[in-house]
UniProtKB/TrEMBL annotation:
GO molecular function, one term: ATP hydrolysis activity
Protein name listed in UniProt: Macrolide export ATP-binding/permease protein MacB
Any single Pfam family the record assigns to this protein: ABC_tran
Any one annotated GO CC term: plasma membrane
Broadest EC class assigned to this enzyme: hydrolase
Annotated keywords: ATP-binding, Hydrolase, Nucleotide-binding
Keyword Transmembrane helix on entry: no
């Protein structure tokens, strides 16, 4: 069975605006999928449907063998907490708190000692060349640094599916390459990544490219 399956999905806003109809899609474990298409085609909406943060009007969603998922179902909440990680354009961090505070939040549900949590955090900060950022407030970091912290947060959470919505948007070329390299390395370790992008130059990074306009 595929890791993610959408069957005959319909998404409509009101009675007259249908975004998707009879959309069927399968994504295998370990894929790095790029979602492309013109503005307004529904890339982010599709990502949010897969991430169980937007409900569908009709159809079936199956993720990691959990069937009949809806946004507010118990299994959806479990998947969002333990399996699915989100990487947003705005980084998804609390800007007025420290890097340490944000990363400790990712370990909130892990049954490990405080000392072990700090050791894990320092391990990844060192690996990502961000060791001196531990006690800085998030707002003091550059966009590229914040996005790397957001990726560390997903690693600490143990996310096996990463949904990335334009994660390189607004970054300079150097930080864009750093972020894509980190995502590629995570994918090579078996993590499934689905990424929305308008940058066609990034398509070589993906194992599969899906044009969302084909689902309209």
């Amino acid at each position: 069975m595929s890791l993610i399956t959408l069957k005959n999905v319909k998404k409509e806003y009101g009675k007259n605006q249908v975004l998707f109809e009879n959309l069927s899609l399968e994504i295998e474990k370990g894929e790095f999928v790029g979602l492309v298409g013109k503005s307004g085609a529904g890339k982010t909406t599709l990502l949010n449907i897969i991430g169980l943060i937007t409900d569908i009007s009709e159809g079936t969603i199956i993720i990691d063998s959990h069937q009949n998922l809806s946004m507010n179902s118990k299994n959806a909440m479990i998947l969002r907490r333990y399996t699915i990680g989100y990487l947003f354009q705005n980084y998804g961090l609390i800007e007025d708190e420290s890097v340490l505070w944000n990363l400790k939040l990712a370990l909130e549900y892990k049954k490990i000692k405080r000392e072990e949590k700090l050791k894990l955090i320092n391990k990844y900060l060192k690996q990502f060349k961000l060791s001196d950022m531990l006690n800085k407030k998030v707002y003091q970091l550059s966009g590229g640094e914040q996005q790397r912290i957001a990726i560390i947060k997903l690693i600490l959470q143990g996310s096996q599916i990463i949904l990335a919505d334009e994660p390189t948007s607004g970054l300079d070329k150097e930080n864009e390459l750093i972020v894509m390299k980190l995502l590629k390395e995570l994918n090579e370790k078996g993590i499934t990544i689905i990424m929305v992008t308008h940058n066609m130059n990034l398509c070589d990074c993906f194992s599969r490219v899906i044009n969302v306009e084909n689902f309209r």
